[in-house]
Amino acid sequence: MAERVVLAYSGGLDTSVGIGWLKDATGKEVVALAIDVGQSGEDMDLIRQRALDCGAVEAIVVDAKEEFASDYVVPALKANALYQKRYPLVSALSRPLIAKYLASTAKELGADSVAHGCTGKGNDQVRFEAAVAALAPELTSLAPVRDFALTRDKAIEYAALHNLPIAQSKKSPYSIDQNVYGRAVETGFLEDPWNAPIEDLYTYTQDPSIAREPTEVVVSFDQGVPVAIDGVAVTPLQAIEMMNLLAGNQGVGRIDIVEDRLVGIKSREVYEAPAGIALIAAHEELENMTVERDLARYKRGVESKWAELVYDGLWFSGLKRALDVFIDETQKHVTGDIRLKLHAGTAVVTGRKSGESLYDFNLATYDTGDTFDQSMAKGFIELWSLPSKISARRDLAGK
Amino acid sequence: MAERVVLAYSGGLDTSVGIGWLKDATGKEVVALAIDVGQSGEDMDLIRQRALDCGAVEAIVVDAKEEFASDYVVPALKANALYQKRYPLVSALSRPLIAKYLASTAKELGADSVAHGCTGKGNDQVRFEAAVAALAPELTSLAPVRDFALTRDKAIEYAALHNLPIAQSKKSPYSIDQNVYGRAVETGFLEDPWNAPIEDLYTYTQDPSIAREPTEVVVSFDQGVPVAIDGVAVTPLQAIEMMNLLAGNQGVGRIDIVEDRLVGIKSREVYEAPAGIALIAAHEELENMTVERDLARYKRGVESKWAELVYDGLWFSGLKRALDVFIDETQKHVTGDIRLKLHAGTAVVTGRKSGESLYDFNLATYDTGDTFDQSMAKGFIELWSLPSKISARRDLAGK
Amino acid sequence: MAERVVLAYSGGLDTSVGIGWLKDATGKEVVALAIDVGQSGEDMDLIRQRALDCGAVEAIVVDAKEEFASDYVVPALKANALYQKRYPLVSALSRPLIAKYLASTAKELGADSVAHGCTGKGNDQVRFEAAVAALAPELTSLAPVRDFALTRDKAIEYAALHNLPIAQSKKSPYSIDQNVYGRAVETGFLEDPWNAPIEDLYTYTQDPSIAREPTEVVVSFDQGVPVAIDGVAVTPLQAIEMMNLLAGNQGVGRIDIVEDRLVGIKSREVYEAPAGIALIAAHEELENMTVERDLARYKRGVESKWAELVYDGLWFSGLKRALDVFIDETQKHVTGDIRLKLHAGTAVVTGRKSGESLYDFNLATYDTGDTFDQSMAKGFIELWSLPSKISARRDLAGK
Amino acid sequence: MAERVVLAYSGGLDTSVGIGWLKDATGKEVVALAIDVGQSGEDMDLIRQRALDCGAVEAIVVDAKEEFASDYVVPALKANALYQKRYPLVSALSRPLIAKYLASTAKELGADSVAHGCTGKGNDQVRFEAAVAALAPELTSLAPVRDFALTRDKAIEYAALHNLPIAQSKKSPYSIDQNVYGRAVETGFLEDPWNAPIEDLYTYTQDPSIAREPTEVVVSFDQGVPVAIDGVAVTPLQAIEMMNLLAGNQGVGRIDIVEDRLVGIKSREVYEAPAGIALIAAHEELENMTVERDLARYKRGVESKWAELVYDGLWFSGLKRALDVFIDETQKHVTGDIRLKLHAGTAVVTGRKSGESLYDFNLATYDTGDTFDQSMAKGFIELWSLPSKISARRDLAGK
Q1: Both B154 and B213 in a single domain?
Q2: Which residue in A38, B88, B108, C139 has the fewest CB atoms around it within 10 Å?
Q3: Any known ligand binding at D10?
Q4: pLDDT value at D169 more than 50
């Protein structure tokens, strides 16, 4: 039997042409693997057939939407994960899932290598290969676009020459990646960071500047996981899909930043993640109600580190796993309801209630019923200030 | 000469009555000190006269608006300081400044103690007293409201009995603190965290849900400090005042959170800080353009710590000072222009340019002219993944 | 039935006199509770009888040595816990355990309060009361020595007056606390930090400057827990006791530092913890063999925080619990053998081996058999250096 | 004029042969640059002549010992820099200094590239090249041993063939790097981490197990810098040299660890750094006396990061520079005397005094004269425990 390589197949130009390239360059049989993470767009059966038409010895489609939502997006929500405080890790979350299927498919089918269609200057190549290395260290990772220096022009030429069934009629000027959690758009005129984004870029969100009535929605969480919307029980996938609609229709979730890539350069990126931005706003405020101060403060540092690790392709690393158990421990009481007002690009919390709340009306109120013993404060302040006081005596001496 | 105490005087009921209370309880002469940090409201001369009418032996007014903006708000902007990721530290920034004047006035006038009007369950008592301890450790801090358990009812009764010139006609149901950087509102019906805020709470911001045309503005920074708005040079104070107007008119800067107080309880707070929210958004994105990745990542942890320290009343502590020099070092290249779109409660960056930019078009572009050597990525990924790969060999053995 | 208070009873002067004080001051019946955490010294039956003789309505002795070793010291070993990099938290570990028994005994016997014999300027008062607050928030904590300002002189006078059975013949000039994990010595001539410690202070360790033959010992760990010494299976308690002997006889584990107390002052402390210092040295090096780099680096920050929390009396806090699950996750592969050479005050690792090792001879060796692909390094360095390179182009321009 | 490359020249086999290799492979003229960082061994004039004899077009020797001590070791002392808590960064400190001279010499002599003799699996290649990239981004770095896959056997063969003046009579079984701050030894039988080090490895330290009289020495620091030893003023270089002698003669400063290399593997390393270990012990304890608690706690995290950055070759990075200004700020009061007892491999602080001390006898003492107000503690503990208490009420409800 010929050696085999399992290719992460998107149905687009690069990976379609990649099937032939891989065969030509390595002599291996190419298995095309298409993972449905809610990127919508084309029908997965069409994609499967195209892979075969392009020369794949086998083409496999996996519906991983529920798994993606539950096992990849939910941990990101628990972590309030926003790289550089802004980016909800849309693509960074799907790569380890796809890599997991690359590795398991390679094992099942006896392949000795896997492949992806990434270039050599982005983050996704690292995410794919680092994940594969952590799951199946014996596999080799191939990246035809990067390693054979194949440009887009060469791909179009190859497709024409071999009569590959890939429509090139309407080429997008942008590079786009999307899944149920969001969309990433880059290149084109955005490469000048002074240029403002235009409406044309967006698919998941409506123009926030158009006048609309606000939408009010109550999101319920159980131990950090969204479990109901306006009282209706939902799976994580449903929660994301519903919030994409509700928040997206109000223009919530657009992001435009200059971003620090793992490979050492800065790039300008535009994202849409309506559900992500709205759910994180809700989740953070529920934590404000239910998590102790010191734990909450420390968790914020853990969140940054978690987001950086996932951004940097280290989903399956030991540190990421250990941060996950920390975060899970913090979520034990993050249960309750958050009322959000969605409007004109904003997702604003307007109410929160929880049976697990640490907010204590009787301690907080200035009204009758106050149970806070104010006389304790004097001693607290005295000792709290003591180190500063002692050093002031030193530092001010003789001044 | 009788002993003296310098009281931080606001002109309101508690500190007006406090003049008499302090005299009665301690026998000291009371010097009233009113610091103008842009809280607007009453004329400072009226406040000065009221203090005298209430029995102060002396009443001093200091216009500290420029100093507040330059020496207290600007460091907070450089630190992108948002406690719990949300609160721009409005009151927390003014307390150390007021404490500084309490201490210096006490030294000048030979007073042996200072006083403030805070209760025993908030943060401000700590901020005042910790700052005084760090600046003038020999002074005693008095807090008549807290230490003599004086309630609002007793204050009203005292004012009536002594015929103090304080209007009580229209008592606000809320507890409010404000300065040029923002407003804090608490208590009242907000003590039920499920209740949404109402328009009535807000002064610095217009209702974001009313349809308006967006406002576009370009903010220029020099080493992290806002120095021009739409090309017109401004002082820090002017930058804050102008952005309060521009962003406030678009409903930008409203904040509603459950907050972890230093004294150990959670409280529900509503804030307005239009300039703060808009300027921090601009400043953060300019940092994304001009600060190296690793420095930017580390700075985010420093920012959290800085905000916690300032929230916790440790403005004059050694750690705060050392974080300041770190932050100043990070700002050396944070120079350039940010274009903001202000609309319906959002302050969105739509463009950035800088002579100090680390964004390199030729490295970032996927177009002709790309200078990034993609062949380097393979080696990078190999070593980047190596620890995970080695541990995978161990962890997966026998599985 | 009269109200009851449960007193943490040591058998010493302060808590013996405290029985009477508490009765006199509160009218409550006093239950004396003595916890054996391996402090050795007097027979626990004698202590029990003394409590009754001093007026306790009931006296209870609990042998908690195994529990202390397994549930309090072992987590500290996993955390390599050294406050200020030096102090193994000897007393800080026993306080939460004692507080746990105070709380459970109070619940069983229907007491409404607990008490301890600490003064008001140390850490232990905080550790007792914070632990009780976290375990039984309805209980009140009393501290007769602190709250009634009872000095040692008053205690001696009271004991004499009431003819309490407490020998005062040989008063130590030092304040001492000890348990199976170590000893703490303070006050006396040590209060001048220029004075060197003298041999007289030490009980658990021999003089390291006396010439002896080195001792070699192999400690085996299973998931971070010491399980065998020189191949003989041990419980955690036995591991500590044996290492106290072996390391103590070589003078290992003496510590002399100026320490930052939680109450805001610096104090000078001398400790002995032979087993602690030796086992942490062994455990750290086994981690070097078996834990991934990034996880190990992050864990070092967690260790510092863990030690600070425990030092600060927050054993039962939410953050401490969440750090524990993080640390436990890191220990899954910390299994193997460490050979220690104990000599003249040093515990030096001279060999390590582990079936879970991540040290890979074939990658590390410079000999034949090297499997490391050196050609990968060039690409790695290129991208690793890229942020510095890009900023250098900016920073050096025009210089 | 032919193109030129500046080679970091050690005088050893690899770089001597490297002169010819570089010429053969690149056609460039080779300038040999030997930096004296106190590695002792051969006379620098001999080394200079050997470079010329091996074909260098020019050979330059720079005495950088003082600069190394003052500008590279002193910052490491201020940072108490110990990678993995153990390794004082001996080689990691010299690389950026050598790289600085490589870059400046290349600029002066119009060279377009620099070169070093490192292999492709160690840290030093990264340190050289990352430093050069940060100082002279236009230069190319060459690594003949790594990039041309030149093994030791090939080097010996080449040297014989070309009759190069390099004695190979007594080849060390180890790979050694040394400078005035310490020595690093690796490979050979040490590659089995169960093997104990042998006396033969060590040069800077005497056998600690031989009985000797202890040595007592007082080290004085001024703002974190060692400035006197036993009252005699010293430069940083002199301080290191004297402490190497004093501590080395007592066997202080031997280190044996499994280390996490930047390139992703673990290696086993043996080091000697007598002055480093002794001076850091002294410096840390002086900080305990003179630095505020919160600043000291935060600095410990900064220290770890600093050591990791320097280990990882990022000496000239923006983050490293910003951490330096933080650390310098912490050192303003680190002035005073530390008495060390050096004996049998240990450097133990036995006394500390400082005009900048924050240790306050009157607050610390339990004797007459105590000025600590113990009544303050009750209020402190109440608020300190409040978050745990509130969450306990929730967590224990119904249990």
Answers
A1: no
A2: B108
A3: yes
A4: no
Distance CA A124, CA A90 (A): 11
Joined tokens for residue A366: 């200035």
High-pLDDT (> 70) share of chain B, %: 98
Per residue in A325-359, pLDDT (tens digit) is: 999 999 999 999 999 999 999 999 999 999 999 99
The answer on C208 and C84 residing in a single domain is no
D17 lies in the same domain as D76: yes
Catalytic residue among C91, C113, C124, C177: C124
| Residue B391 to residue C358, Cβ atoms within 8 A | yes
Residue D302 lies in a domain: no
- Number of compact structural domains in chain C: 3
Tens digit of pLDDT for each residue in A195-254?
Answer: 999 999 999 999 999 999 999 999 999 999 999 999 999 999 999 999 999 999 999 999
Where residue D377 sits, what CATH number does that domain have? 1.20.5.470
Of B299, B318, B325, the CB nearest to D325: B325
Using a CB–CB cut-off of 8 Å, the residues of B that contact D are 260, 263-265, 291-292, 294-295, 298-299, 305, 309, 314, 317-319, 321-323, 325-326, 328-330, 383-387, 390
- Shortest distance, CA A397 to any CA of chain B (angstroms): 11
Residues 6+ positions from A356 with CB-CB distance below 8 Å: A289, A290, A333, A334, A335, A336, D394
Residues D247 and D388 both lie in one domain: no
Q: Which of B303, B333, B299 is nearest to B222 (CA)?
A: B333
CATH at C279: 3.90.1260.10
ipTM: 0.96
Contacts of D358 in chain A (CB under 8 A): 387, 390-391, 394
Which residues form the domain of A223? 176-291+333-353
Which is the catalytic residue, given C40, C112, C175, C297? C175
What CATH number does the domain containing A126 carry? Answer: 3.40.50.620
Q: Domain ends where: B171, B204, B231? A: B171
Which of C360, B375, C372, C384 is CA-nearest to residue D146?
A: C372
Residue of D nearest to C133 (CA): D389
- Catalytic, out of D94, D113, D124, D183: D124
Question: Residue-wise over D302-330: b if at least 16 C-beta within 10 A, else e?
Answer: bbbbbbbbbbbbbbbbbbbebbbebbebb
When mean pLDDT is compared across A333-347, B85-99, B138-152, C361-375, the lowest value belongs to C361-375
Yes or no, beta carbons of B378 and C376 under 8 Å apart: yes
CA angle D145, D146, D149 (to 5 degrees): 80
Same domain, D31 and D134: yes
Whether residue B337 is found in the same domain as residue B382: no
Q: Would you state the structure tokens that stand for residue B163, as one six-digit string?
A: 């015929």
**A369 in the same domain as A243:** no
Nearest chain C residue to D303 by CA: give it: C301
- With CA atoms as reference, the chain C residue closest to D377 would be C120
| Boundary residue ending a domain (D151, D171, D191) | D171
C207 and C345 in a single domain? The answer is yes
- Mean pLDDT, residues B123-130: 97
Residue A117 domain-assigned?
yes
Mean pLDDT by runs of 10 across the 399 residues of chain C is 92 94 96 96 92 97 98 98 98 98 97 96 96 96 90 87 76 86 92 96 96 97 98 98 98 98 96 98 98 98 98 97 98 98 98 96 79 89 93 82
Spell B235-253 as b/e; 16+ CB within 10 A means b: ebbbbbbbbbebbbebbbb
Write the residue in A126, A346, A359 that is nearest to B266 by C-beta. Answer: A359
Catalytic residue (choose from B175, B304, B317, B357): B175
Question: Residue C63 falls within a domain, yes or no?
Answer: yes
- For residue C48, the Cα-to-chain-centroid distance in whole angstroms is 26
Buried b (16+ CB within 10 A) or exposed e, D206-240: bebbeebeebebebbbeebbbbbbeeeebebbbbb
Residue C308 lies in a domain: no
| Chain B residues touching C377 at Cβ < 8 A | 379, 383
